[in-house]
Amino acid sequence: MDMSTENFIPKYQRLKNYIKGLISNGEIKPGEKIPSQRELVEMFQIGRLTVRQAIRDLIYEGYLSSEQGAGTFVTTRKPAQGGRASKRVALLFPEDSGQYPNPHFTTIISGASAVAKKEELATFFLSLKEGESLEDSGLLRTLDSQRVNGVITIGVIDTGVTDILLEKNIPFVATLNRPQRRGAYYVGTDNIYGIHLAVSHLYKLGHRRIGMIAAGREPKWSYLAERLAGYRKVMRELNLEIPEEYVIDTWEERELLKYFSCADRPTAVVGGTDLAALQALRVLNQLGIINEVAVIGYGGIELGAYAHPPLTTIEEQFRKVGSIAMQQLVALMNGQTLVKSTVLIKPKLLIRESCGSPLK
């Protein structure tokens, strides 16, 4: 089928008009399935991304609905007046069953919600328990029943969820943890830059034996893996050795007691998170060597200011992360093509007493 006419109209808009025409003429009735994406690509000789954009817009406008594994169907309900359905955005995050809930979720949500309010979006929360199947979680039913137009994921989300959002053509932007799928949009912290700030600061203070705790080498914790990669990179640039025992994945008290009890322990450590760094301060106080080891955290949680001594940290701009993520999502829901799939925000070094003085 030829779409070369009306060249001044974008291809995805022409495809939308064609599908709307089929619906209004009764050629495809409510409840009936439209041609697959592959079929539309072949029919119109256009790219798959163009087809996805057209279908995504028609879902958003209320003409179509997508069912996982079944296809895309004409809705049985009439589209909202003016061709626009209410915009509904889900904020999806993992339900933390551990002892320490992630303190950054609320700040990201605050930034996203401020933009949502300005754009007159309806937002609601969805959570997934760790290890819970997608069927048991009710996520699929919620995405359909709530007519979700867009999703912001916060934290580590199962790749199966990402696959579903891509398959259902639901625009989404990930935050805090980089998704492991191509075609996904992400807004987060420039962790390589952040760790460079931390290690360089320690180096300027005279430290040469610099370790890292709570490094987190599992691929699913992308932000920890990025920080570990940044640590190794800056240590190489400074020509500093990294003994194997200087890098540990845990921040459990028992392991930190052994870590700091060694005679050749590091004179400074960077925590993969602020909570890990606070645990290190606690252990150093317990061992009576709090003045012998400098500590820097990562995150910028408020609790760090009240530690003994107050924690130097890499302060992430989480409210800005949430705000930009929602702005990106609004653009996607409006059918815009984003120039960059990844936006990284540079953190800041917040110096406090835990490592503010030169090494003696």
Report on the structure:
The protein is α/β, with parallel strands linked by helices and 360 residues long. Helix content is 38%, strand content 18%. The protein contains twelve helices and 13 strands. The chain has helices at residues 11-24, 37-44, 48-60, 105-118, 134-137, 139-145, 159-167, 191-204, 222-237, 253-261, 274-287, 318-333; strands at residues 64-67, 71-74, 88-95, 122-129, 150-154, 172-175, 185-189, 210-213, 268-271, 294-299, 312-315, 342-345, 348-350. The strands form three sheets. A six-stranded parallel sheet has the order 4-3-5-6-7-12, covered by helices on one side. It has a five-stranded mixed sheet with strand order 8-9-10-11-13, with helices on both faces. Strand 9, helix 11 and strand 10 (294-299) form a beta-alpha-beta unit. Helix 1 (11-24) crosses helix 3, helix 4 (105-118) crosses helix 12 and helix 8 (191-204) crosses helix 9. The longest helix is centred in the middle third of the chain and has 16 residues, at 222-237. The chain is elongated, with a radius of gyration of 25 Å. Mean pLDDT is 85; it is low at 1-8.
Residue share in helices?
Answer: 25-40%
Number of helices: 12
Report the radius of gyration as a whole number of Å: 25 Å
Counting helices, strands and paired strands, the structural category is alpha/beta
Shape: elongated
Largest sheet: 6 strands, parallel
Spell the H/E element sequence: HHHEEEHEHHEHEEHEHHEHEEHEE
Indicate the proportion of strand residues.
15-25%
Mean pLDDT, to the nearest integer, reads 85
Strand order in the sheet with the most strands: 4-3-5-6-7-12
Q: Strand tally, please? A: 13
Q: Stretches where pLDDT falls below 50 for ≥5 residues? A: 1-8
